[in-house]
């Protein structure tokens, strides 16, 4: 079974368990549920275009950094120009939690992407209840119909949708309502990173859609290459997180690459 299949199997059990404990009605009662959300499409216009990710570990890299707190890191990400922060909420494979979002929500004024594996409507209500602004839909885990229905639900909750694709086959998951399309440079089956593959796929996207280059951006040259090829946004996790002070690393990066 591939890692992605294992994650989805675990996620199905996790969602069933959560549903048996907390109803959608209770989720709607959260202090965050009715708050006005922040828009990534807007912060792309005014900030760096970089979505910095808070991630403690991953299946491909193991432990990346389990010594820093979400608040200290994402506050610096915001101060130094991140357009949004992506925060992993998957516990088993990425070491994340809802608390990672809850602990920062009232302290930052940029969009938060709930980074998880969305397979059930219930998770959208969860995302809203913890203060997220954006959700990720991974084409490899969903049918085009699910993408379309989940997008509609997300929008009804004022959440923006970042749809992640990796292959030409997954282009058919794109519909006119998704807010942004992310192209994952990393193949989730074998974890190989190929920036050129993403550039080739980007050239096949509809012209008017905002595009995000995701994963495996390991240095300034990678970033410049992808920017030059026309990507609007860049999702970066490990490159900053692997440092003792991820926020400082981001500051240094931004001062070198953003003119
Ligand atoms: O990164 C993994 O090992 C992974 C494995 C299976 C599913 C998803 C995975 N990664 C999630 C991500 O999308 C990345 O955390 C994100 O794009 C940032 O990537 P990076 O800059 O390489 O940390």
TrEMBL record:
GO molecular function: indole-3-glycerol-phosphate synthase activity; phosphoribosylanthranilate isomerase activity
Gene3D superfamilies noted in UniProt: Aldolase class I (3.20.20.70)
Coiled-coil intervals: 1-28
Pathway membership: Amino-acid biosynthesis; L-tryptophan biosynthesis; L-tryptophan from chorismate: step 4/5
Keywords, sorted A to Z: Amino-acid biosynthesis, Aromatic amino acid biosynthesis, Coiled coil, Decarboxylase, Lyase, Tryptophan biosynthesis
A single GO BP: L-tryptophan biosynthetic process
Assigned EC number: 4.1.1.48
Catalysed reaction, written as an equation: 1-(2-carboxyphenylamino)-1-deoxy-D-ribulose 5-phosphate + H(+) = (1S,2R)-1-C-(indol-3-yl)glycerol 3-phosphate + CO2 + H2O
Top EC class of this enzyme: lyase
Domain Indole-3-glycerol phosphate synthase: 4-251
Xref: Pfam families: IGPS (PF00218)
Entry's family note: Belongs to the TrpC family.
PANTHER family from the UniProt entry: INDOLE-3-GLYCEROL-PHOSPHATE SYNTHASE, TRYPTOPHAN BIOSYNTHESIS PROTEIN
Protein name (record): Indole-3-glycerol phosphate synthase
Organism the protein comes from: Epilithonimonas arachidiradicis
Organismal lineage: Bacteria, Pseudomonadati, Bacteroidota, Flavobacteriia, Flavobacteriales
């Amino acid at each position: 079974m591939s890692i992605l299949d294992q994650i989805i199997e675990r996620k199905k059990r996790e969602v069933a368990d959560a549903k048996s404990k907390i109803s959608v009605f209770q989720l709607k009662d959260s202090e965050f549920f009715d708050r006005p959300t922040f828009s990534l499409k807007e912060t792309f216009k005014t900030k760096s275009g970089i979505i910095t990710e808070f991630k403690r570990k991953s299946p491909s890299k193991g432990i990346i950094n389990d010594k820093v707190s979400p608040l200290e890191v994402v506050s610096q990400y915001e101060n130094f120009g991140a357009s949004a922060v992506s925060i992993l909420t998957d516990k088993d494979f990425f070491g994340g939690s809802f608390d990672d979002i809850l602990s920062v929500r009232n302290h930052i004024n940029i969009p938060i992407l709930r980074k998880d594996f969305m397979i059930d409507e219930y998770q959208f209500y969860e995302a809203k209840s913890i203060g997220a602004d954006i959700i990720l839909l991974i084409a490899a885990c969903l049918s085009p119909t699910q993408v379309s229905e989940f997008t509609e639900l997300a929008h009804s909750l004022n959440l923006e949708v970042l749809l992640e694709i990796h292959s030409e086959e997954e282009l058919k998951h794109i519909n006119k309502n998704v807010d942004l399309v992310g192209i994952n440079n990393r193949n989730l089956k074998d974890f190989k990173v190929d920036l050129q593959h993403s550039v080739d796929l980007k050239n096949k996207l509809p012209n008017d859609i905002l595009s995000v280059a995701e994963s495996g951006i390991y240095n300034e040259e990678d970033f410049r290459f992808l920017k030059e090829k026309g990507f609007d946004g860049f999702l970066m996790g490990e490159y900053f997180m692997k440092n003792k002070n991820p926020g400082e690393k981001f500051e240094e990066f931004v001062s070198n690459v953003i003119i």
